[in-house]
Amino acid sequence: MAPPRPSKYSDVVSKKATASDPAKVEAEAQFDGLFVLRTSMKLAALAIVLRYRNLLAVERSFQAAKALLATRPVFHRTDGAIRGHIFCTFLALVLRKELLDRLAARGTTLPEWQQIIDDLADLSTVEVEQSGRRALLRTAPRGSIDPICRAVGVALPPVFQEMPSNEMQPDAP
Question: Which pLDDT score, from 0 to 100, does residue 136 have?
Fold first, then answer.
């Protein structure tokens, strides 16, 4: 068994144990809430801090986008693919915000994002054929779909939509 190693805040007290050192913990506490930025940029300290905070806000936004939009990790081989991925993620965030803003402007109770995703995924059509006639049948929309459609000005297709038959039609005289 390897002997215990001291950490930044502890000391070895025997061959088998370490103990925290209150003096080390207290000395380090003076830096709680502070951070240090080191850069080669020729900017004022305040400008550097503001740029760093903007970077953190962008990173948090992308993390939120990937969680909210349920994107999987994507590995890119080219700069163009990276730019395209960032653009698509940003566009998705903009569209999500626009949708939520439109719902809020209409006084709609904002549903959870996952509920919207689930409701949209549940919406589908199926093609049926019987006795030579074809039709598209649409599922009934769940709760969040109608307010979303109204907010974005889109109408769902009809529940029943007859389709042209596959049979060859004789040419009209």
Answer: 93
- Cα dist. 86→63, 79, 82, 99 in Å? 12, 11, 6, 20
Distance CA 151, CA 84 (A): 28
Identify the residue whose tokens are 């909210």. 68
Under 8 Å between Cβ of 124 and 138: yes
Mean pLDDT by 10 residues, the chain (173 residues): 69 71 82 79 87 80 73 79 84 87 90 87 92 92 92 93 73 53
Contacts of 167 (CB under 8 A, 6+ apart): 132
Name the DSSP letter for residue 54: H
Question: What is the dihedral angle through the alpha carbons of 42, 45, 47, 49, rounded to the nearest 10 degrees?
Answer: 120
Q: Which residues contact 120 (CB under 8 A, 6 or more apart)?
A: 145, 148
> Residue 20: what are its φ and ψ, rounded to 5°?
-70, 145
Give the whole-angstrom CA distance, residue 89 versus residue 65: 7
Please tell me the predicted confidence (pLDDT) of residue 123.
93
What are the domain boundaries of the chain?
A: 20-63, 113-161
Going by C-alpha positions, the residue among 83, 41, 90 that lies closest to residue 65 is 90
pLDDT at 28: 81
